[in-house]
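Need residues for this backbone.
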């Protein structure tokens, strides 16, 4: 498992772009599955994701461990909770700013 410790990590930056932009997801022909139930359904369909990103706490969960085993050799990256929280705050601020521009425009 690769540990991502910084929001400056290139992989983390790439994933953040995908989270924030449907256009970017379409451009690279990728999507994001958020949650164990969606990963399970995806694996049930016979497909495997390109990579799995978890917070460090989730990697210790029994359900997640079983999904990782089912996923086989799919690369797994973990992040610290503080990285995800910081990114969520930044995304929330960006959404509020866009909403303010839309309401004002």
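Answer:
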């Amino acid at each position: 498992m690769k540990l991502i410790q910084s929001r400056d990590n290139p992989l983390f930056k790439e994933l953040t772009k995908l989270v924030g932009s449907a256009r970017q997801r379409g451009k690279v022909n990728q999507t994001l599955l958020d949650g164990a139930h969606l990963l399970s359904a995806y694996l049930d369909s016979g497909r495997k994701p390109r990579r799995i990103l978890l917070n460090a706490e989730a990697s210790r969960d029994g359900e997640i461990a079983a999904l990782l085993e089912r996923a086989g050799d799919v690369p797994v990256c973990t992040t610290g909770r503080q990285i995800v929280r910081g990114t969520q705050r930044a995304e929330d601020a960006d959404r509020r700013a866009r909403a303010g521009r839309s309401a004002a425009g």
